[in-house]
Amino acid sequence: MHRSRLAIRRRAWGPLVFCFGGTLLALASARARADDGQERAAGLPSPSIATSLPYQGDPGGVRRWLSDRGINYGFVYTGEVLGNVSGGLRRGAIYEDKIETYVAADFEKLIGWKGLTFYSNQFWIHGTGNLGRDFVGNMITISNIEALPSNRLSEIWLEQKLFNDRFSIRVGQLTTDSEFFNSKYFELFINSDWPTITSENLPSGGPAYPLSTPGVRFAFQPTKDLSLLLALFNGDPAGPGPGDAEIKNRHGLNFRLRDPPLLIGEAQYGYNQEKTATGLAGMIRLGAWHHFGRFDDQRFDIAGRSLADPLGSGIARALRGNDGIYGIIDQQIYRPAGGDADSGVALFSRISASPSDRNLINFYIDGGVTFAGMIPSRPDDKFGATFIYANVSDRARALDRDTILFTGMPQPVRDFELTLEFTYQAQIRPGWTLQPDIQYVFHPGGRVPDPNFPAAALKDAAIFGLRTTIAY
Asked: Which tens digits make up the pLDDT trace of 448-458?
C-alpha cells in the first residue's frame, strides 16, 4: 500500500528543515579558527578534524608510526540533504552520503625504492534516493557525490617517478577526472564534476566518478610551470549493452581491458602558484580526447532515413570514433597580502566542443567566481557563484522535429540545459565544513517532455541543499 504524496513530502522535508536550522546554530556558535601553534601530526591531511581531537586523533600513535614508514591512510565523509522545491519531475528531498577511504604508500620510506608510490581509494555510498534521477530529470550534475548506493573500489595504482620527478608513469585502475578536465576553483561547488559533454557522450559516462577503469597515464614536467599529461584508458568502464552503468559495474571490480580505448591528453601551464609568490596566480589547460569505438548517429539509420521514420530500420547508423577538445582557465584577480594561490577572488571557466552528428551534447561551457578568506572574522570560509551550460546538438534537435513530423503529435524540441549555483562553505573546525547551497536548473534534461504532459517540457527546477564534509 502506497503512502500518500503529502505524507512523503512531509517526511522528506523534515530533515531539510532540521539541517538548515542546525547550520544557523552552528554558524552562530562555532569559531572555525585553527590553532596555528599546534604541531600537526605526521600522516594527517591538511586540514583534518584530527587536529581538534585529543592526541590529534591518534592516541596510540599508530598513524604516526605508519606514516614514518611511508604508509598513510584516512577518510573523508560527505553528507548532504537536497530538495527540489519546484519544477522537474516532482517535488521532494533526499539524504545521501559518501565515505571515501584511502591508503597511500611511499616505497622509498617503506623498502628504499626511490620514486615508487601506491594509492587506492574506496567509496561507501548510501542514500534515501537520487535527486537528479527521481526528482529533477537533469543532465548536468546537481551533486558530485550522487550515485547509486554501493560499496565500490575506485582507483588502485602504482606510480613511478623518474629523472628527478620530472617524468612519471602511473598504471592501474584510474579515473580521468582526478587529473584531466578539471578546475581547482570549481571544486568549491557541489555541482562541480566531470563535464556533461563527456558524461553524456562517452560510453558509460567515461572513467569518472563513480566509475573507474584500467589505464596508464604518463606525465612530464619540462619546466617548473609546464606539465604535459597523456593517458590511455579502457574505453567503457561498465561494458556495452543495455542497463545502468553503475549497476553493471556495481563494485568497481569489472577491470575491463578489451573495449575500444579512450585516449586523452592535456597541457597545463601554471604561474604564481607558490606560497611565496606575490603576483596573481593562474592556470591554463588545453586538452583533447579521442575514443576509438563506434557511436550511433543522432538522427539517421543505416539506410540514411530518420530514426523517427516508421518506414526506416530504427537501427542508428554507426560512426567510427569520437572526439572532443577543451580549454580551462583559472585566474586569481585579487590576492591578499601573504595569501596563497587559493585565497582572495578568482575566476574560472571550462569550455568544450564535440561533433554534432554522433553526440547528444556538442558544446559545453561553465564558469564562475569564488571568494576565499574575504571575511576577517572567518578567514577560512569560502563562497561563490557558478553557471553550467550544455547545448543539445543540432542532429539531436533535428530528430525531435522529425518525430513531430512523422507522429503528428506535439512535443518539445530539445535545446539546452543551464544551471546556476550559489554556495557558502563555512569551516566549523579545521577539517569540518558546512555548506548551504542553492541551485536553479533551466530546461531540465535539455527541455525533454514532462512524463505527465508529453506535449510540454519539464519545468525549471529550484533546489536547496546543505552539505557537511569531515576529513580525518
From this structure: 999 999 999 99
